[in-house]
Design brief:
The protein has 129 residues and is mainly alpha-helical. 64% of the residues lie in helices and 3% in strands. The protein is flat.
Length: 129
């Protein structure tokens, strides 16, 4: 459906807006992670995030490097080499999933101010003032 504003066509181009939209949301996501898990509070989730990212990146980089070497040599990689790449990837993904689980479970349950009512599950958020 084409958008029309008072008889004028819209000049909004989605592909011009998408990169800026993604960049700003990724920036806000990064700030939230740094503030909540490294500046304000340091929990096991902070360690899970760092270790999970490190292991995942190491496993992918090592696996890609070994794969390129085996293609160049024309030899099949040994099962030990494959496991040296696969195990960090698997453990890294598990740690990142544990971090996400911890992050989702940290939804505030108490109001910031004692005079505000506690939110009920399933109720819409209060209107902005």
């Amino acid at each position: 459906m084409k958008a029309r504003y008072a008889g004028e066509p819209s000049h909004l181009r989605i592909w011009r807006v998408v990169p800026e939209f993604l960049a700003r949301h990724l920036g806000n996501f990064g700030k939230r992670i740094v503030y909540n898990y490294f500046l304000r509070d340091f929990t096991i989730a902070s360690l899970e995030l760092v270790a999970g990212l490190a292991l995942l990146l190491w496993g992918v980089a090592f696996g890609a490097w070994q794969w390129a070497l085996s293609l160049a040599r024309g030899q099949v990689a040994s099962s030990g080499t494959i496991m040296l790449a696969a195990l960090p990837v698997i453990v890294g993904i598990q740690l990142l999933l544990a971090f996400l689980s911890f992050d989702m479970s940290r939804v505030p349950q108490l109001p910031l101010h004692p005079r505000l009512p506690a939110p009920r599950r399933g109720s819409p958020p209060p209107p902005a003032r």
